[in-house]
Write a structure and sequence with these properties.
Layout lengths: L1 E4 L5 E4 L5 H20 L4 H21 L7 H8 L9 H18 L12 H12 L19 E3 L4 E3 L5 H15 L2 H4 L3 H15 L6 H14 L6 H11 L1 H14 L4 H40 L5 H12 L6 H6 L1 H7 L4 H13 L3 E3 L5 E3 L6
Antiparallel strand pairs: 1-2, 3-4, 5-6
Length: 373
């Protein structure tokens, strides 16, 4: 724990002690999930599809927390250099800024040594995040000198961060020393990253862009600790649970020397993201295995070319379908447009009996993703 007496805002406390009994199950689960993901074979094809998708959704979410309306699909268009209509110049500039900030983070690679946060990186990220964004007081990369209030009664109350630049400068210097000290560096990376997020927001050193910068700091600490994919996924969780996000801040602030509520919330988000990423990776691996399995069945003439084609279509475009759909839906028309109903029925009977397809009592069929166990 590190305490500092400010000039104008009383005593400020940086505390890395928390309710370990309460958080131990979540920490264990997050750690095991991350180790599992690190051990899974992630092929370049999968990485190239997961990484951009997470980046676009994360940028949309972290901006949306601050009121930006641009959805994930339009973030992708902006990232590809297209101009999208229907949004303000400010909204589009915020997205462009976040794309640059994420690009910077992607160039910071994990190493054997623990990542050391610096004021220079913080100010650089803030410059990127708030570049060319109009604001009455904010100067990109420069600390605030004046009064702000954060929060509202609906989310646990209003908080007044330190207000004079001398206090902010001192607190940022101590924050950097503290977040890089051995006791904090030795913590589980999910805890260290959440602490950086929380205490940076409590200092609230800039006029604008504090939340976006804080979430980037959390991301870089996790990514440099070999936590894959989920650091950027966290912003999606925070956005989807934005009320709980702000309430977790307020609860921890009221406890003064116990950040447990915010750590618990952040860990819940990490577990949610890790679980989703793990499922996506396992599904991708399963699809590759099934493609190989079906190909071998075709070579051994245990599947006709049409049956093989149907299973391949369902791997690429999972859907629930009926016998009638085989003759009427465009997805299947290339295979079944000129095939009799009786032949189509025989195909479904053979594939369901072999457990390659699953069928319910209503006659609906779908691909059995667990045929290989």
């Amino acid at each position: 724990m590190r305490e500092f007496l400010t000039y104008k805002s009383g005593k400020f406390c940086f505390c890395h002690e928390f309710n370990s009994l309460e958080l131990a199950p979540s920490l264990l689960r997050a750690t095991i999930l991350n180790e599992t993901i690190c051990d899974l074979p992630i092929l370049p094809e999968l990485a190239s599809s997961i990484e951009p998708e997470i980046m676009y959704s994360s940028i949309s979410a972290t901006a949306a927390i601050e009121g930006n309306p641009i959805p994930e699909e339009d973030v992708k268009l902006i990232a590809e250099g297209e101009d999208v209509d229907g949004y303000s110049k400010k909204d589009k500039q915020e997205i462009l800024n976040l794309i640059e900030a994420y690009d910077l983070l992607s160039r910071i690679k994990p190493s054997s040594a623990s990542f050391q946060l610096t004021e220079d990186l913080i100010c650089t990220l803030h410059k990127l995040v708030t570049h060319d964004i109009p604001h009455e007081h904010n100067k990109p990369g420069e600390y605030r000198d004046g009064l702000v209030r954060v929060g509202d009664k609906a989310h646990g109350g209003v908080y007044t961060p330190p207000k004079i630049i001398e206090d902010i400068r001192n607190l940022m210097e101590i924050f950097i020393e503290w977040i890089n000290c051995d006791d904090v560096v030795d913590l589980n990376p999910f805890v260290r990253a959440a602490l950086a997020h929380y205490y940076f927001c409590i200092i609230h050193p800039f006029w604008d862009g504090n939340g976006r910068t804080a979430r980037l700091l959390e991301t870089v600490i996790l990514e440099t600790s070999n936590v894959k994919y989920v650091p950027r996924e966290l912003s999606n969780y925070y956005y989807k649970h934005v009320d709980e996000y702000y309430i977790a801040f307020s609860q921890s602030i009221k406890l003064k020397r116990d950040p447990t509520p915010f750590l618990a919330f952040s860990l819940t988000g990490a577990i949610s993201g890790l679980t989703g990423i793990k499922s996506s990776i396992i599904r991708f691996i399963r699809i590759l295995a099934l493609k190989d399995f079906y190909s071998n069945l075709r070579k051994k003439k245990k599947l006709t070319s049409r049956q093989y084609g149907l299973l391949s279509i369902l791997l690429d475009s999972p859907t629930v379908f009926t016998l009638k759909d085989l003759n009427t839906k465009p997805l299947f028309s290339a295979l079944y447009l000129r095939v009799s109903t009786q032949t189509a029925r025989r195909d479904l009977k053979k594939l369901t009996e072999a457990r390659y397809l699953a069928a319910n009592d209503e006659g609906e069929c779908s691909l059995n993703m667990h045929v290989l166990g």
